[in-house]
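User: I've been trying to design a sequence by hand for this structure and keep getting stuck. Would you show me what you'd pick, starting by listing the structure so we're on the same page?

Assistant: Good idea, let's start from the same input. This is the structure you sent:
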């Protein structure tokens, strides 16, 4: 209400610039938006008039009104200062009162920047621009030199949001959660080491994707994942129906420890890649063709028969290529009992890997990060950018949730 009142007062004022006459003088874009262009002069004029309107509201009477004589407070000239705007530097005259009680809201005391400057810097940082890129961009567009320290201070404002996001309460149940890690180089104790960013991508009961958190650790391992799983539980997750993971040793056991009712599905693509490392290039196409009969089988029974055939044909020649399938079959074959739409969703960790591809697009300009906090800050901003596009449920969710409600009777509470 207060701002609306002030705005109306400004609109009622007679502008010091005749807009039509000034527009007629503009022959180029430079005349309009340049260093001494019309928009810059209009901004100065409008801002000063709004400050005068704020003063009028503060005192309770208009300039030169009779009430001034017995008011106990009155206008007392102006204070000059220069502020940064989207059109460059603009000199402003801010009104003063004799008692010094006037606190302008449009351009506050001590404020020298009336652009959404911080937001612009954070936006550029979120899109993957390096500090040098941001410095050059700001210099070109605003004529302002900023230091790496300034950029760091601005983007550090995000860390509070990161902490709040990482600690926020979660849903009590997620039908499907994908677990995977993405690796980056980070400087630590004078050395550059490879660190894992552990990512949990959940699908809630309404079918919407949500990154439940991201954790920075020195090495991907089941022990660290166990701490991540415990944190999810501490933040309110009571149950997971299907956990989709890569082939990391000990991971299924870690999930069973924290969420004993959860089914675990190993990523078939990871298993295929791992097998091919032990197959000679000459035979890889034939091996993959035979392996496809296993993981594309119409039923668990047929898949087990095809796995036996695969073992008979290739087991002696390439035992290391077959062994993971046989030793981890219980967790690799979970998806066979589900219909096609659920199989496609859970038999790989493609959903979280697709997220990681988006993160790499943002971080590709950085060969390494100076700290864990810098990496976490960048990943948080990138995730928020990607998540803006997740406005609809995942494909075929109505059918999927109906099937899951039957498979997991009593565990899936639907409103």
């Amino acid at each position: 209400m207060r701002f609306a009142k002030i705005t109306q007062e400004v609109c009622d004022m007679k502008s010091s610039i005749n807009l039509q006459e000034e527009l007629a003088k503009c022959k180029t874009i430079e005349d309009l938006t340049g260093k001494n262009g019309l928009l810059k002069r209009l901004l100065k004029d409008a801002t000063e008039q709004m400050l005068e309107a704020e003063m009028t509201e503060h005192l309770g009477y208009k300039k030169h009104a009779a009430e001034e004589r017995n008011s106990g407070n009155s206008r007392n000239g102006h204070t000059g200062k220069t502020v940064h705007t989207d059109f460059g530097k603009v000199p402003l005259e801010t009104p003063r009162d004799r008692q010094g009680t006037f606190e302008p809201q449009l351009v506050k005391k001590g404020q020298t920047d009336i652009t959404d400057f911080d937001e612009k810097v954070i936006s550029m940082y979120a899109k993957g621009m390096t500090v040098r890129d941001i410095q050059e961009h700001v210099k070109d567009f605003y004529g302002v030199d900023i230091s790496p320290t300034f950029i760091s201070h601005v983007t550090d404002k995000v860390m509070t949001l990161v902490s709040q996001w990482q600690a926020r309460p979660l849903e009590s149940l997620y039908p499907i959660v994908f677990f995977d890690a993405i690796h980056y180089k980070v400087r630590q104790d004078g050395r550059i080491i490879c660190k894992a960013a552990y990512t949990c991508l959940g699908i809630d009961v309404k079918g919407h994707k949500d990154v439940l958190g991201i954790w920075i650790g020195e090495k991907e391992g089941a022990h660290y994942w166990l701490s991540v799983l415990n944190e999810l539980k501490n933040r309110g997750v009571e149950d997971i129906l299907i956990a989709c993971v890569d082939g990391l040793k000990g991971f299924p056991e870690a999930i069973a420890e924290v969420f004993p009712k959860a089914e675990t599905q190993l990523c078939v693509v990871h298993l295929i890649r791992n097998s091919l490392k032990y197959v000679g290039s000459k035979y890889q196409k034939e091996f993959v063709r035979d392996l496809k009969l296993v993981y594309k089988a119409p039923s668990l029974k047929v898949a087990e028969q095809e796995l036996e055939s695969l073992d008979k044909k290739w087991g002696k020649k390439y035992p290391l290529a077959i062994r993971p399938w046989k030793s981890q079959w219980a967790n690799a074959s979970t998806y066979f009992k589900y219909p096609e739409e659920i199989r496609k969703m859970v038999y790989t960790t493609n959903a979280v890997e697709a997220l990681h591809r988006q993160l790499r697009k943002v971080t590709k300009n950085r060969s390494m990060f100076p700290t864990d906090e810098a990496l976490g800050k960048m990943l948080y901003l990138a995730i928020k950018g990607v998540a803006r596009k997740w406005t609809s449920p995942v494909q075929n969710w109505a059918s999927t949730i109906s099937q899951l409600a039957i498979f997991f009777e009593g565990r899936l509470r639907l409103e």
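That's my pick for every position. To get oriented when you compare it with your attempt: Residues 2-114 form one domain. The radius of gyration is 31 Å.
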